[in-house]
Amino acid sequence: MGYAKIQHEAFRIDDVLRELRGPRVGGVTFYVGTVRGSNEHGRVEALDYDAYPEMAEAEIERLRSETVARFGLVDATVIHRIGRLEAGEPILLVALAGSHRTETYEAVAFFMDRLKTIVPIWKKEIAEGGPTWILGGARVRP
């Protein structure tokens, strides 16, 4: 059964795929977000993610359940990491299991658009020009 989780540890895609397999599943679409090593201003060393884990996890679970119902998915699992993540490291795993591929492709775009606007996870970018908080897409210097 799918779930939503906030964690410090790295995730394993194979473990999530094994958990989502079942007789109604025709395919699983994965989205894996990673830390980019650059932005429009230069090199990025890392991102520091912070959250109130219980609140963020509850919001991700609500969105996960909404996405499953809205697109008629079989199930879904979402894992978002927090803490300091270096360039190239995975941040987010969204795994959407469906009977067919079409609904999972549409669902991942919907999920990601909503995740960025409603889930209380904060991101600080550690880059050449100094640290910058990224809040709702806007850059704010401390």
Set out the fold topology.
Elements: E1 4-7, H1 13-20, E2 27-34, E3 38-39, E4 42-51, H2 53-71, E5 75-81, E6 83-86, E7 90-98, H3 101-118, E8 121-127, E9 130-135, E10 138-140
Helix pairs in contact: 2-3
Report on the structure:
It is a single chain. With 142 residues, the chain is of the alpha+beta class. The protein has a single domain, classed as Aldehyde Oxidoreductase, domain 3. The chain is 32% helix and 42% strand. It has 3 helices and 10 strands, in the order βαβββαβββαβββ. The protein has helices spanning 13-20, 53-71, 101-118; strands at residues 4-7, 27-34, 38-39, 42-51, 75-81, 83-86, 90-98, 121-127, 130-135, 138-140. The strands form 2 sheets. Strands 3, 4, 6, 8, 9 and 10 form a 6-stranded antiparallel beta sheet that branches. Strands 1-5-7-2 form a 4-stranded mixed beta sheet, sandwiched between helices. Helix 2 packs antiparallel against helix 3 (101-118). The longest helix has 19 residues, at 53-71. The mean pLDDT is 93.
Entry summary:
This protein has 142 residues and is of the alpha+beta class. The chain has three helices and ten strands; from the N terminus they run βαβββαβββαβββ. The strands form two sheets. Strands 3, 4, 6, 8, 9 and 10 form a six-stranded antiparallel β-sheet that branches.
